[in-house]
Amino acid sequence: MKFSYNWLNSFFKEDLPTPNELADRLMMRFFEVEAVEKHGDDYLIDIDVLPNRAADCFSHIGIAGEIAALYDLDLIFPEEKLNESDDFSDFVSIDVKEKDLCPRYTLRGIKNVKVKETPAFIKKRLEVCGLQSINNIVDITNYVMLETGQPLHAFDGDRIKGKCIEVRKAEKGEKITTLDNDDLILDGELIISDKNPLAIAGIKGGVSAEISADTNFVLLEAANFDAKTIRRSS
Question: Residue 69 pairs with which residues in a beta bridge?
């Protein structure tokens, strides 16, 4: 997985060793570092995170935690700022029909959204990690995933049909057009749905509720899906 050296550095008061020195230390005590490459004023550090550490190390915070242990440093976590007001339960409910395959599914409503260009520092960090900037809403979901390890997905709340989001298996023959314009015929995959498939769970969103320049109300999804099911569907 690709990590930004500057991003890792942001979790500490002290400056970290140089990227190459850090890579050598990680190689000796942690995982194999496959590459260290200069990327503008930053460095890409490509770390081969093994599957048994995916849960805690597929994120910048996870790797920063390992660095803190290696160098006996204190971690500085990002500040959480959240102002909650309206209850969106009257707008949309959640029905998880496959609880064994989705033990946790959450939505948060965000209103008065303005879709625009992403701040430069976020774009730079995403680019180092191999992701292309799209817009501020899509980019922040990717940013949080790379920072914390928790995937997110944003739906345009005004394009949801009906008042219920279901997590269920697709019926044979159901169709979805994905965000990269692939027309797929489904057969038993775990999906997110209103009256029709909105996304293939943990894999790809659909165009029916995608974020656009006109989006004003976002439903933000954070969920945990069964890894084997997602891998098979992918």
Answer: none
Cβ neighbours of 223 (radius 10 Å): 20
pLDDT band with cut points at 50, 70 and 90 for residue 78: confident
pLDDT tens readout for residues 86-132: 777 778 899 999 999 999 999 999 999 999 999 999 999 999 999 99
Question: pLDDT for 166-210, tens place per residue?
Answer: 999 999 999 999 999 999 999 999 999 998 999 999 999 999 999
Complete DSSP assignment for the chain: -EEEHHHHHTT-SSPPPPHHHHHHHHHHHS--EEEEEEETTEEEEEE---GGGHHHHSSHHHHHHHHHHHHT----PPPP-------GGGT-EEEES-TTT-SEEEEEEE-S----PPPHHHHHHHHHTT-----HHHHHHHHHHHHHS--EEEEEGGG--SSEEEEEEPPTT-EEEBTT--EEE-SS-EEEESSSEEEETTTEEBGGG---TT---EEEEEEE--HHHHHHH-
Q: Which structure tokens are listed for 88? A: 């969106």
